[in-house]
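Thread title: Can someone regenerate the structure for this chain?

I was given the following input by a collaborator and told the matching structure tokens would be attached. They weren't. Posting the sequence so someone can regenerate them.
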Amino acid sequence: MLNVLSYQIADSIDIKSFKAVFPEQVYHSDADELFYQTAPEAFVYIFKYGVVCFLNYKDAGIGDFLRTIAPYCKNPFEQKLSEEFEVETFAAENQFGYNKIAITGGDAETLRLIMLNVSQSVALDYYSEQTNRLLEETNYHTQNLEKKGKLALSGTNLKKYIGKTLNLKNRISENLYIFDSPPETWEDENLNLIDLGLKKTFDLKERFRDIREGLEIIRENLELFKDLLQYRNSTFLEWIIIILVALEVLNLLIDKLLK
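Best answer:
Regenerated them for you:
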């Protein structure tokens, strides 16, 4: 039985720089990911969206590797999100369980596909957590609007809030490819069946849809908040103009009375 452990350790990882200094022979690489076979049955998979996945690694080896890659991480996390999965190789048939899979083979390409799906799952956990935080903040402001009839957000804070939302949406959009099936599955029926089974096991499509729907709710609320803030600012400017006009009229009256 092989053990897969995937960690979301940062917002992103500098794949290109790490590849240039890491001495192991790379098994697969592109601009977004690196896959190394570091021993006969030990693999490590690195993704630019901040995830590192290990197969058949001991705790000490995982710790050493995470320390090695730390300088190449952007916004590293103090508390890492993780997901664990078990792989039984050379089984009689492919079978999918709650937290394990049995496969008829044990080649590197099949193991890479399994590690990819586990990594996608932990990445979705991270994006879901970030989306829920924004939803909680949105709900706080909408409830405040319902109770007090006004928006308790200054222009600067609203801009920061919009910025957080846009940054999250952009990160998800940049990494949309991670939820697609890799090209290898298009040409290999067995790999395709394993990929489809894993996506169903981890509910990847449903979880991704929930994140997108959550972000859409946040976007609609931001539009409302922006309109309310613009109305508040325009009303404030109107009152300033009214006061200035009133002062000018008052000055004219005082001048006439004094004359």
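The radius of gyration is 27 Å.
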